[in-house]
Inverse folding.
């Protein structure tokens, strides 16, 4: 018996797998965003389900904040385009929230399989709650998987985008629980000379390897 060939998992700091797909706002191609926008691609288990509904409301309420950061939100599940359209109208009618971002109809599981969104141990017929943050160079920068029963925190996803964009612009890191506007961590020195320079730089220095600064 031949061993089942497994698709390699997507990995951080490697090119995000490209795809073309139909969405509630027409066809899209991931690579079309390269050089233009960051992308937050997220999957949900199924349309017309309560936890997913709260998540779509949450993403919709923060949509303008993602736009300010040049981030394109893209949802996905293995439901049909008609189910998506019906559900989005239902959300607007019941919660007075208009979903402003496209939602991929992935009935053939092409995109879900490409990104490892199907976890048989959780469900063989639904995507788990996965989040993939892709930068404007097309590189996968962060990913998080949640179980079917646990809704995501959209503020945290926005916080990660802020941290990644700050790292790209200033070459700094962010501490635990960091929020936009707070002090950041300066990368530790790698030579004796850099240690001495660090002492003169005027940072908030706790020790030779631990320094913070404001931006």
């Amino acid at each position: 018996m031949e061993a089942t060939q497994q698709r390699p998992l997507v990995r951080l700091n490697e090119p995000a797998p490209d795809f073309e797909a139909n969405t509630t706002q027409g066809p899209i191609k991931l690579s079309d965003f390269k050089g233009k926008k960051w992308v937050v691609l997220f999957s949900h288990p199924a349309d017309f389900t309560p936890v997913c509904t709260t998540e779509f409301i949450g993403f919709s309420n923060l949509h303008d904040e993602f736009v300010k950061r040049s981030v394109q939100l893209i949802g996905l599940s293995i439901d049909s385009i008609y189910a998506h359209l019906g559900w989005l109208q239902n959300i607007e009618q019941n919660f007075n929230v208009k979903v402003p971002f496209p939602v991929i109809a992935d009935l053939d599981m092409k995109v879900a399989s490409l990104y490892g969104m199907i976890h048989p141990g959780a469900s063989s017929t639904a995507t788990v709650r996965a989040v993939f943050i892709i930068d404007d160079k097309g590189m996968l920068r962060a990913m998080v998987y949640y179980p079917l029963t646990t809704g995501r925190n959209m503020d945290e996803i926005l916080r990660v985008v802020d941290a990644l964009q700050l790292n790209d612009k200033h070459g700094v890191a962010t501490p635990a629980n960091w929020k936009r506007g707070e002090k950041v961590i300066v990368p530790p020195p790698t030579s004796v000379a850099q240690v001495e320079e660090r002492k003169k730089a005027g940072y908030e220095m706790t020790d030779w390897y631990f320094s913070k600064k404001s931006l």
